[in-house]
Write a structure and sequence with these properties.
Layout lengths: L3 H9 L3 E3 H6 L4 H10 L2 E5 L2 E4 L6 H12 L4 E2 L1 H7 L10 E6 L10 E6 L20
Parallel strand pairs: 5-6
Antiparallel strand pairs: 1-3, 2-3, 4-5
């Protein structure tokens, strides 16, 4: 059975994490495989898992997309507006901005914007952890 700190981490992060984050918390490959097989964790995209009993929310989908996009990626556009409480922002398509030089395959429901011109002050983590850069 996984350690309580893994569930605490998932609960604090919209029930989504990377396999690397879970390994840093002490989760072994064997435990990860066992949790996937039993449905405790669901592989959503490569390297990202979700707690199987948690219904996906807009916030969890945004974090999942951001983690999938990798280092330097952040939620942007109408998706960021929705996370910050702007009403009537579309929630079906999630917008992620990432460094121009990075390449990823398409992910259904995610619009990728590539930019060579972003600064740390362009990104905020206020109100949600879905607006922060991935180290």
């Amino acid at each position: 059975m996984p350690d309580a700190k893994i569930f605490k981490f998932l609960g604090d992060h919209h029930w989504v994490a990377t396999t690397v984050q879970l390994a840093e918390l002490g989760c072994t490959e064997y435990e990860l495989r066992t949790m996937r097989r039993s449905g405790i964790l669901v592989s959503t995209v490569r390297g990202v898992v979700r707690f199987g009993a948690a219904e996906p929310t807009f916030e969890s989908r945004c974090l999942e997309a951001q983690l999938w996009a990798g280092q330097g990626a952040f939620v942007s556009g109408p998706s960021a507006g929705a996370l910050h409480g702007l009403r009537q922002m579309p929630r079906r398509l999630i917008e992620i901005t990432m460094p121009q030089r990075r390449r990823v395959r398409e992910l259904p429901g995610v619009r990728i914007v590539r930019s060579s011109w972003t600064h740390d002050e362009d990104v905020t983590s206020e109100r949600t952890d879905c607006g922060s850069r991935i180290p």
